[in-house]
Amino acid sequence: MTGAQTELRLLALLLDYPDEHLLAGHDEIAHALAGLQPSARRDALAAFVTWLYESDRFTIEQEYVASFDFSKRTTLHLSFYTYGDRRQRGMAMLALKERFAAAGLLLVDGNLPDYLPALLEFAALAPAEDGDELLRQLRAGIEIVRAGLHRNSSPYALLLDALVAGMAKLTRSQRAALEKLAVEGPPTEEVGLEPFAPPEIMPEPVSGPGWGAASIPGAASMPPGAVRR
Q1: Any bridge partners for residue 228, and if so which?
Q2: Distances from the Cα of 66 to the Cα of 30, 43, 72, 75, 173, angstroms
Q3: Which domain holds residue 166?
Q4: 179-201 exposure pattern, b = at least 16 Cβ within 10 A, e = fewer
Q5: Which of the four pLDDT bands, split at 50, 70 and 90, describes residue 101?
Q6: Of 140, 142, 83, which Cα lies nearest the Cα of 115?
Q7: Number of domains present in the structure of the chain
Q8: pTM of the prediction?
Q9: Would you say 166 and 45 are in contact if contact means Cβ atoms under 8 Å apart?
């Protein structure tokens, strides 16, 4: 596994819910970190890991729930930022699921294919060009989550900083589209139209506070993740 793959797997694990496997995995996480070359991504990962393993379980769980479960701006289901809760979102989810299958990867524990930890596992395990392209396509959602976490002073912002540190800088057109999304939010469904994707693919609507404008900031030994071969 290359250094870039290890970084993506670490990000996937650390962005997933902090269960007993992750909280008991300090030695494995530290070993994986120690094998990485010095970089801004490694520094951000290390800072988050220090916070994680110096905090008690209740604090970690509360922080995770507060960071990701109550705001549209920080949901880890990234298709929301492109499609909102419109019926097209279900078809996009189906296309993502087929993309996972084509790469020989299976979603586990009921995860949806637009869940960021699952997408990061895909980027780590699929052919490099496939993973990189998928993350590029979802860049706007990644940046929106990053901005929301910074606004809320969440330690999980370090993980989004780490992810972005390994990606290309935003182009002028990407930044313009991102700023438009930040102000207007994702599209909304037309009244009276029902989703036509299969019910097992269509996610539940995202709940939480309204949108509103926000600023945009400039390993085999590891615990199990959201995806497996």
Answers
A1: 106
A2: 26, 24, 12, 11, 32
A3: 3-187+196-204+214-228
A4: bebbeebbeebeeeeebebeeeb
A5: confident
A6: 142
A7: 1
A8: 0.80
A9: no
- What pLDDT does 96 receive? 87
The secondary element (H helix, E strand) that includes residue 89 is helix 88-102
- Under DSSP, the state recorded for 228 is E
Q: How far is the C-alpha of 3 from the C-alpha of 187, rounded, in Å?
A: 37
Backbone angles phi, psi at 18, to 5 degrees: -75, 80
CATH of the domain at 129: 1.10.3480
- How many helical (H) and strand (E) elements, i.e. helices and strands, does the chain have? 12, 2
How many other CB atoms sit within 10 Å of the CB of residue 45? 26
Tokens of 8: 């993506």
In a domain, 209, yes or no: no
Is the predicted pLDDT of residue 220 greater than 60, yes or no? no
Number of neighbouring beta carbons within 10 Å of residue 49:
19
